[in-house]
Every structure is written in structure tokens, then in C-alpha cells.
Fold this sequence. Notes:
The complex is a heterodimer of chains A (251) and B (422). Chain A is an alpha/beta fold and 251 residues long. Chain A has helices at 40-48, 72-78, 95-109, 117-130, 135-139, 148-162, 178-191, 231-239, 242-250, and strands spanning 2-11, 14-24, 29-33, 54-62, 65-66, 80-83, 90-94, 141-142, 166-170, 197-202, 215-220, 223-228.
Amino acid sequence: MLTIKNLHASINGKEILKGLNLEVKAGEVHAIMGPNGAGKSTLASVLAGKEDYEITEGSVTFDGKDLLDLETEDRAREGLFLAFQYPVEIPGVSNVNFLRTAINEIREYRGEEAISAKDFMALVREKSALVELDSKLATRSVNEGFSGGEKKRNEIFQMAMLEPKLAILDETDSGLDIDALRIVANGVNKLKSPKNATVVITHYQRLLDYIVPDVVHVLYDGKIVKSGPKELALELEEKGYDWIKSEVEAG
Amino acid sequence: MSTLLSVNKLETFRSHLNKTKIGFSNGILENAESFLNQTDFPTTKVEDWKYTRLNKISGIQPSNDTTLDTDVILDYDLGKETFKFIFQNGVLCSSSDANLPEGLTILPLEDCTQEQLASIPYQDNNELFVALNTFYCSSGLYIEVKKNTVVNKTIHIHHIVSGENMVNHVKHFINCGTSSNCNIILTFISGEAKNCMSNVLTNVVVGENAKLNIDKLQLENDGNYGVFNELTEIYANANFTLNTITLGGTLIRNNVHAEIKGQNVECNLNGAYLLKGSAHVDNHTLIEHQVPNCNSNELYKGVMDDKSTGVFNGKVIVHKDAQKTNAFQSNANVLLSKDATINTKPELEIYADDVKCSHGSTTGQLDENAIFYLRARGVSEASARQLLVQAFIEDVLEKIEDENVVNCIHNELSERLGWSFN
């Protein structure tokens, strides 16, 4: 579904991603872990199409399409979803209003009919229940005045509404208490299917107790330096990242 | 040796205009004339006109052509029944034929008695466009809402300019009696007109315990100019709201002056200006709190694209005796292009010592992070920008109670800016 080959990306002339390779297949859950500054969030931003980054080398194929060639909105329309580490507050724009615009523009892109108001509201009710998001929050301005946990649940609510093929969760667990974490993880797990895939970017192993990955990757200094089964996450939690660093430096 | 001649542009401009035939008293006309004789168009050195150059207006050679273009579509449909009056180039050319309810008088100024004309306040003609409006007034409406009268149907006064170099001076007087209630919509369009100027002055008296709401839609097109004065006296326990929506015009100046003359008044001035091309829109407001225990709220928001310019100058004066005044003023602006400009100046003069007043002004751009966030959900960039601009301006539009007016604004926005509303 997603194939990243030798991806190099820089911001303001500073190279952050230095030849990253990753292959994600339908039905899989991948976790990407790594120390601060390794390039985890850069990877998420680059995949979503943030223009601040310059791609200097490499390729990203998403479902047979050259992802890097697509505008941000077209990536979303092709089925890519990024749950933001820091969801943006947008005063005055209601959650449901913008989601209906999004769904209808996605449907138009795919040559489908617009969603009826009735079906849309039914979908809002169904999906907000999934992440235990108060339906009042669904109608409020996007993230405005939401608590940290509500913002993250809102990300998963939007993901549920848009039903992406590939979801990238960028540090979705950070700042969450254990209840919120459970709710968010439950939401993600319920949305899992053999047809979609999830990439979980995280600093902490804790989330992976709830969202169990098929593969764990270690991102360090702009590259995936180690991949392994879910037990690798436990090892990282226990031993920290220093041994990875010395392993890499030892070559 | 050369002789430097000082050319009085106003004199040239006036030489093409015809003196009013309305029966204002000689004293008023003499006042206006003597003021006009010794003045000229203000330059940007005059504080009140610092950001608005008048050379486009002073450069007009007003046409003497009084024939009205009959091809112009006169109507402006608000989608509901109203008492409708249509002015074309300052001439009343259509009057609502419906029987006006008891307690409501609407007359063209031409048909007013001396007594009725003498009841119009603000006969101080020491301001250029006020004096011009009086001395060259072609027509206007005298609207009197008698004591305790509730006017159930909206009064719609529509103004059209047509042709080229047409200059019109229209004066309305709206007098709301004690405990009356009235809604008025003023619309202004310029269609295919070129280089035309409207000088429309609306005198308003909101009597004790009365409620008056005015929605003003300025839908001028490029190449046309307008100066609008709304001069209002508000008496005890009255409620006055003026919503000014401006969507175009090469030069539009609004002067709103609200004098609060009785206690327990609520005065709301709201404005939205959404400009593109080379539109220039200047909103000057002045609210005077002369007595205690009154509230005024002012919210103006602007969105400037392309090379357009917005000006906001909002002044609130709280006089010495006006204790317990609540006066809030806010002006916020978004610039959508590098070439767009806003000049904003909130002013507060307080001479009382027990008041709550605030004013503020902000100018910014759309939040690029918010745009990226919306795009990452599949919303196109254009829709994302529209959603943000709409959200920004919505605060003002939601002050407008009349749904038909809001629908008209939405239609105009979709025509002018390509917005869609779902």
C-alpha cells in the first residue's frame, strides 16, 4: 500500500530524513519509534504534504500512485489520513461543517454522489460514539477550547468519518491519560480492517499495549535503522535508545 | 513670470450641479451655500480624510443628463414582501403602492410640508458632503413612524445609479416615535454605471423606547463612488442597530454618527467589508455617550484581497456626565494578499470616571496551519480559505436578524467571490 524508498527531506537547508525506506501492506499496523529529533514528525509531515519540507531524493508510492506528486488534499482524497500531533484550533469553523465539505469534496474527487444531510448526521452520531466524543463537541468549532484528550479523540473521530486506507497517527498518545489513551486506541482498533493500514508514530511503548503492531521500526537520524516484531518496543522501553545509537555508530 | 492659480476643484464640481428644489428653509440653504463657497475638497492632510483621497470624486464632471436609463433593472429582490421605494440617480422612480398602515407616513421630500422639512435634525452643514447633500438634494424619503406604531413589514429603500458621470444627492429622514418599532433595509447598486457618485444622507431619530434596525447593503461595482452619512439621535430606552455590509465600490465612505441623548439606550453598530480588486472602503464611526447608563457595541470586520484597501476609524466619546457607560468596540481585519491594505484607528475619549469601555483592533492573515489542517482532511485550498474567511466574517453576519438579508449577502458573495454555502 505504501512504499517509501530512499527518502531524503530537508527543511531550511537542514537534512532531516536521510534515506528512509518503509513498506506497509494492507491489513498491517506498523509502529515507528525513535528518540526526539530522529525525524518521526518530519516523516508524518512529508507524507501529508506539508510544503515547508523539501524532498531532495527518493520516492513514495501510495496505492500505485506517486504520492509526492499529489497536493495535500488529493493525498487525503486518495485515502491518506494524518492524525496531527498538535491538532489546530480553528475558531468559527464547525467540526461537522468542515467534515461535510471534506467528505463531499472527497466523494466528488472519486466521482461519487454527495452525502445527504440525513446520512451525514447518522454517520456523525455513529462515529462520535466510537470515540466517546460528546456529540456537542462534534458541532463545535474545530478543536477550539478542547482539552488535550478531546483534541486527540477528535482526530480519531475525523479518521472514522473519512475511513482512510492508510492512517498515520503522529504521537497521538502524547499527553493522554490512561482513560483517554484506551478510548483513542479502541477507536483505532475498531477501524482496523484487512483493507486498511495504520502507521503509529510514538515515543512511548505504552500505546503499543493497546494498539498492537505487526512490525516495530526504529527511526534514528533520518533512517529506519532497525525493524522487528512487537517485542522490540518492549526492549526499547527497557533499554532506551542509547544502545541503538551505539549500534548505528559502530556501523 | 508665471502666475500660480489656485484652482478650487469644488467650484468646478459644483458648477455642473443643480440647486435643490426641495423647500428647505432659506436659512439652511444659505448656511450650506456659504460653507460651500469658502471650502474645497479636503486633502489627505485633513485628519478625517487621511487615508481616503477624494480626487476620483472631485475629478468627476457631473453630467447634466437627467434622462434615466430605462434598460436598467430597477428591482432588487429581497425574497419577501416589503414597502419598497426605488431611487435611480437620485430620483424616486417607484413607490410601494401598498397601503401603508396607520401610523406610518412615507413621503418624498418634494411633497413634504415646511413643517415636516423643518423637523429634520442635523441642519449643521459644516461638513462638505452634508452641505452638498442639502444644497443639491434631488429627493429622498420622509419616514415617520408614529408613537406606539409597530411596522410589521420591512421598509426597503433601493438605490441604483446608471449612466456615466452621474452625481446624485439623496436625503432621507427616518423619525421613529415613542415606543415604535421599525426595520429598514437600504440597498445600493451601481450595475453597469461608470464614474458615478452617490451622496446619500440619512437622518435618523430614534424616539424614546423605540426600536429601529437598519441593514445597509452596499453592492457597488468598480468605477463608482459613494459617500454615506447616517446621522442618528437616540433617546431614552431606545434600541438602535445599524448593520453596514460593503462588498465593493472604487471609493466608499461611510460616516456614522450616533448621539446617545437619553439613558438606558442600546446602540449597536456592526460592519463587514469584503473587498477585492481595487476597492477602497472607509468606515468612520462616532458614538457619543452624552448621558449615563447606556450601552454601545461596535463590531467591524474586514477582509481585503488583491489591491483593495480598508479604512476603519471608530471613535467613542464618553462625555463627562455619562457615568456607567458600557462601550465596546472591536475591529478585526484579514489581509488575503500582499498588496491589500488596512488602515485602522480605534479611538476612545473618556471624560467620565465610572465606565466600562474597551476597544481593540487586529490585523492578520489566514492561519496557514489551519489551511493545511483542512487540506489534510481532503478540503481544497480554495474551500479551506473560504471556510476560514466565512468563519471570520460570520460574527458580523449573525448580528443580522433578517434571514432574507443574510441570503442576499450569501448570494452576492457567491457571485462576487465564488463562494458556495451549504
